[in-house]
Amino acid sequence: MHSLWAMVRNTLSQAVRMKVALVVIVLLAVLLPLMSVVMEGDGTPLGKLQTFVSYGLGLVSLLLCILTIGISTYTLSYDLKRCHLFLVVTKPIRRYQIIAGKLIGILILDLVLLAVFGGIIYGLTLAIPKLVEVDSAQREHIQNEFFTARTGLKVTYDEAQLRKAAEERLKMLRESGQLPREMSQFEALRELLAQERMIAKSCPPGRSKRWDFEGVQISETNDPNARIFVRYKFEATTTLPDDTVYGTWRIGDFRQIETGQGRPKTPIYEVQRSDTIRTYHEFYVPADAVADDGFLSVAFFNNPTLNNTTIILDDVEVLYHSGTFTDNFIRSLVLIYVRLAFLAILGVSLTTWLSFPVAILVCLVAFLAGTANGFILDSFDGLGMTLGLIYNFTLRPLLWMLPQFDGVYNPSYYIINGRLIGAGFLAKTFFITVFIKGGLILLLGMWIFSRREISKAVV
Amino acid sequence: MDAGENTYAIETIGLTKIFPDWWGRAKVVAVDDLNLQVRYNEIYGFLGPNGSGKTTTLKMILNLLHPTRGKAFVLGGSCAEPEISARIGYLPEESYLYRYLTARETLDFYGRIFGLPREVRNERIETLLEMVGLAGMGNRPVGTFSKGMARRIGLAQALINDPDVLILDEPTSGMDPLGTRQIKDLLVELARRGKTILLCSHLLADVEDICDRIGILYGGKMQVEGPVRELLQHQDQIEIHTGRLSESTLEQIQDILRREDQDCDIQRPMDRLETFFVNIVNKALQEKQVTSGAGVGTGITGFLAERPVVRSQTLLDQLVSARVAPEEPARTEGSVTEKTQPKKTTPPVPQPDENLLSRLVSTKPEAEPKTAPTEPTPQKAAEPTEKVKKDLLESLIEHKHKSNGTTEVTRPDSSGDQPNA
């Protein structure tokens, strides 16, 4: 153990004395306070906060990722190239301890830097509403949508049902000879499935669309100010004169009406809204709309007197408070730390057999691929039958080994929308990214390092 | 191999290293079927020209390179085992130290790897810094050190664990003569205190001064191996050192030798340049002249001097390392000197009266105390020359002549220098 900690200390000394670490520290120390003053967002206090936190976390994450890649690929390759390891491996230390020591050193440095700069962002975020002019409505808006941690329940569709419907339509088209000749069966099915998904989200004029949510766990049950938020985005099948959708929303436990229990135990709220298309909107109702068993229905009525087109409701979601901003902010930092840990493992492991330039290149590619991994995976999902089969057995496992830093793995997404990063999600992400993916890479690196020659052939 | 039963501190068996080309074909045979055996408590000089495979051999012994064939053992085991590497000190051909660490931090880092407690570590760091003459430079980054100073700190790191075996690759390269002398004295003292030292060097004079045995490597093969004195000693010549003698005495000696049908070359001895240089620098040091370079080491002190002399020789070791009288060449040749290449045999030449010479020097303790299994006595070790037994000398020259100086009878080595040990 003493050997391991000797390596940890040495790696920390090495990292701290690297100028790149100093540059990153100075950059962040200067840029973060500057950003808190300069950034305005959409001009509202909420916009300013969201922009600052989003860019702040993004910048800290980006620079620390680059620093981690730099140090992790440099430390071992430098020791190998400069033959420092001659004096280390000939001492009573196992080779895996050298790798582990280097890795732990980098992880400690990352932890300290992330805590320091995360702390700076957190402090500045709390200070911004006090430093800019904010009226009471804006303050309430900020409290409800930003300085909070809400759990979101998204509408999901029964994919099996949709596929079954698509297959039936395909069968019907084939039997009636209406299937286009140039279209393969696979392509036709894919197209029909997309249509079924669209139908499931659409609401024609004069019709209503209802979604039922279960397991809405309001933590502040006794708080009269507790709220339920409905978040959504509209699309229209035809062009609207003012790009605005007029509609009526009903939120509550509809089972009370259906079963005819008489006077409802929990209220059902009705909200009239007019919202622009292709933009996310939110409104809230008191949280007492939720039934005691956590059941809640949300319905949208497409008013035919005001709209004459089918409305597509994208990403309908019910949100409710379930944590504090501080807890959520710490979780967002943990999410950043997961990517730092993965990159540190990747960098150190790669340099057990690759030179510094090659290792840093591979790490940067992995980082960039991780940043767009969701997009890459989605784009490959559209491949045809044969190519899809090849992809599934070749590229897909490799892409799976890459980390995912985008989409739901992006901490800014949670913080700027006041969404709770679930503990389960966080634990799962940490486990899969660090322990499974990182662990496999690390084991491979240690295996190579324990068998390689430390010295080069010199005769 | 059982560490408790092993005869040699370092041993290689059929050690071979072949560097392949890109296609995996044998490109260079760096070391070829090498059987190296370094006994406990000896200083073994590992010599050879550039590219002869010395460093490759050391690296294989230390598990920095994997042998293509064969095995290497240190203290009966592999260097890959922490229990073995904990007893080894290694100084590579370059110091390879972390440039950003100070001298003190460097020693602290390696001390931590050995798991030395803080108090022990701090004590040893100070002792070693003193010993290698870097006491005032403990807080200077190693990157600012000259090559010689880096070698000193490199040597200090090799000693931080008080190792049983020291493997040193060019320990004095880049060092000034004063530092070289100090390091040589230090190594001799370490060997006296029970350490085994494998020394790889190009500086033949250094090796000759301090090594008990040497092996010469060429083309990855051991060409010759044996005790330094035996390999270098001229069996057909003797050398007599005396104090100042009068011309008449010299003529009488020459007359005697002419009657014995021997040539005689009489010269005034010269100091070695190293000795002369060291004397000048020591004088400057005594005058306390200012320097920003390395200071004077204190010699072996502290934890390295704490342990009594340990001689873990086997009976065989004692037999083969015992001083053998020149008139017993068969025993010496057969038991110690291993020649892997046939050597030219020289025709027998008339020998001087060896018995007489043996008796002449018999009052002095062995001139090679490193291999003696007893505690060295500083007074004897400090004596530069041997006291003469005057009556015997007088009987030799058949003339009574009073002499104020000292006389030493030795066989001349090829270099003509006195062994430091």
Written overview of the protein:
The complex is a heterodimer of chains A (459) and B (421). Chain A contains 16 helices and 9 strands. Chain A is of the alpha+beta class and 459 residues long. Chain A folds into 2 domains: 2-148 and 335-451, no CATH class; 154-323, Jelly Rolls. In chain A, the strands form 2 sheets. In chain A, strands 1, 2, 4, 7 and 9 form a 5-stranded antiparallel β-sheet that branches. A 4-stranded antiparallel β-sheet of chain A has the order 3-8-5-6, with no helix packed on it. In chain A, helix 5 runs antiparallel to helix 10. Chain A is globular. In chain B, 34% of the residues lie in helices and 17% in strands. In chain B, helix 3 (103-113) crosses helix 4 (118-131) and helix 4 packs across helix 5. Chain B has a 7-stranded mixed β-sheet with strand order 6-7-8-4-9-10-12, with helices on both faces. In chain B, strands 1, 2, 3 and 5 form a 4-stranded antiparallel β-sheet that branches. Chain B starts with 7 loop residues before the first strand and ends in an 11-residue tail after the last strand. By secondary structure, chain B is of the alpha/beta class. Chain B has a domain at 8-231: P-loop containing nucleotide triphosphate hydrolases (Rossmann fold), CATH 3.40.50. Chain B has 16 helices and 13 strands. Chain A binds chain B through residues 2-3, 5-7, 9-10, 13-14, 17, 82-84, 86-94, 453-455, 457-459, and chain B through 19, 28, 30, 51, 53, 55-56, 59, 62-66, 79, 82-83, 85-86, 88, 90, 92, 94, 96-98, 100-101, 105, 109-110, 112-115, 154, 157, 161.
